[in-house]
Structure formats: C-alpha cells, structure tokens
User: Fold this.
Amino acid sequence: MHAWPASEVPALPGQGRDLRIHDTATGGLVTLDPGPVARIYVCGITPYDATHMGHAATYNAFDLVQRVWLDTKRQVHYVQNVTDVDDPLLERARRDDLDWVALAEKETALFREDMTALRMLPPQHYVGAVEAIPGIVPLVERLRDLGAAYELEGDIYFSVESDPNFGRVSGLDAAAMRLLSAERGGDPDRPGKKNPVDPMLWMAARPGEPSWDGASLGPGRPGWHIECVAIALDHLGMGFDVQGGGSDLAFPHHEMGASHAQVLTGAFPMAKAYVHAGMVALHGAKMSKSKGNLVFVSTLRRDGVDPAAVRLTLLAHHYRADWEWTDQVLADAVARLARWRAAVSRPDGPSADALVEEIREALADDLDAPAALAAVDRWVALQEERGGTDISAPGVVSRAVDALLGVAL
Assistant:
C-alpha cells in the first residue's frame, strides 16, 4: 500500500533539541535518545469514515515528533498501518450496501488526500492489515506453540496471563480493563475465555464475511492487535522509540500489542515510550463515528477552509489535552494565519534568530505547540508594531514555521 507524497522540510541553521515527551507507561516525561535513526509506529485508521478532526489531531501530534527529530539531524523511520478489514468496516459496508474492499480503498484514498493537504509527513511503510496477513499467521501459530494462545470454538485467543508485564502500558486495574474491553471491541462476557479481557488473535471464518488461509489456524482473519504487532516487528523490530496513537488506544490496543510482542520475542519493552494524543469533542462529546458528531477535514477543504488554518487550529491545543472543536477556534486560526502571512510578506523585520530557538525549546518540551505559536505571535506583534531592519527575518520565520510546525506561509 502506498502512502502520500512528502512535503519538503526546509533546513534550518543550528540543530534542534532532544525530545522530552510524556510516556503513558511510566506516567511521566522521558527524554528520548533514539540514535541516528529514530523509529516510530503510529496506529492508522479503520477506513470507513475518514478523516475527522480527532484523527487529524492525532497525526498532527506525531508529525511534530518527526519534525523535532528531523531538526536534530536524525533520520526517521515511520511506520503506520491501515486496518482495512475489521468489524466496523464490514458493518458500514453492509449498512450502506457497499463492497467492503471498495469502501476501504475510497476512504483510504481520502485520508491520503487529507494528510497531503495538512502537510503531514508520510510514513516510509504504510501497510494494510490484509497485506500483512502472511506475516500475521506465523506469529499467531508461534504464540499458540508457546502456550500463550488457546482455541475457543475455532477462534484463537491470546492469554494475557502469559505476559508477566501485562498491564504496564495502561496501568489499569482488572475492573477498568474489563469495562474498556467491552467498549472498545473486546468480548469480555464470552463464555469459555480464560480471562475476560483476553483478546482475539484469529477469528475463524464467519458466513458472508471475508476470510483468508490461516494455515494450521484454519480460514479466518486476524484480530486487531496482532495486526500492528506483525507490521511493527517486521519493519521496526523490538524496542523502537515511540508507539503512538489516540488516548483511547492505550487500552486495549497498545496494552495487548505490547504483550503479544513481548511474549513473541522474550524482550521488554516493545516501545521505549507510549505516547497518546487527547480527544477532540464536538457539542460536548468526544468525536466518534458511532455518535456521528464529526467534523471532517475533507468537508472543511471543500468549504474553502485553508488546510494551514486547520493545522493551526490543531496546534493551538496541547497534543495531550482533550478539547472541543467550535467555529470560534477555527476562526481564531484563520485570523492568526492571515496575520502571520502578512508579517512575513514584508521585506524585512525584527531578528528571528531567537524565535527559532524558542520554537525548538517549546516543541522539545513535550511538544508544547501552543507555546511555539505564542512565540511566533510575539514576533508578528513586533513586526506589526515597529517592523525591523533584518532582511532575512521574514524568510527565517517562514522556514521555521514550515519545518517545525508544518504550516506553509
């Protein structure tokens, strides 16, 4: 599966700072030192209704991670999946009388267009669950051979008790895990399971649903968590730097994926940091496909909203914060974009050398994008009030905002 085209990242003088970021597993800030190649895996969409602002906020956060690393002169190895076969996709296709493959392809194509418009840097490997199945089957077989998986009426489940480190990603107790499992695609009430939260690794073929050859597992399709494990281990290996996604993925998705990988490899941890973006609400409730309270990037684009303004709306909120989308937050971003563009359109201005360092400092400190925007606002205010004599300053600001914040002025 192909990703989307990369926008050019301008080179800046000097060098950025190592990223200090919040790790869900430890509950605190950790300073990442990836080495010459930083490795990141971000969980992708289930393509049946893309791309709403919750998606955009998540991918914006991890785009900033990449930009901080690139500014330290590192290479970035970024991997993202597409869950192009899963219950929600099949249910939507049935509801709308659509071919599920065509629906997935259509929504994935729209997602690519949205990511391109928002100047999100693409992954080096963009992998669909379906194309990963040949690599998933042997992992499930190995978990079964290790005694970490069991069969229940033809389905194969992972035993969470097989991983002594299970629970260390989310830090939740058993009651909270069971509740979230029921809310987020699990089946904790199914009779016969060893533990209510044990996740499915391989679903035996159901009538009227797609299935694939599972070798010794029999025909079926993969569970949600093992999909990302197979892709991440194949392209990044164990101990990669950041596992990313929305905060609703900490449990069960990232918790289960970590346990799968740790049992498979005998190593710990799967990722050095588990980083989670906050949720975006609309009309008082988290944006959700099930509720239908969504604001789509593609709709805003069709309505003539500049994607740079959409991105500035996202950047105005700290990536870990939960926040609410309103017409006003977008209007504020549109006004900010106009002021910034007017300021850099002048032939000279106040020196911007300190500004570049302020943006770097803010982003290295747990991706504090609002602080970075405030720094640019201060330079723009100086430009508006009294201008300056540095003919290089407007260009420096434009390049820094593009390279570090992904906003083209």
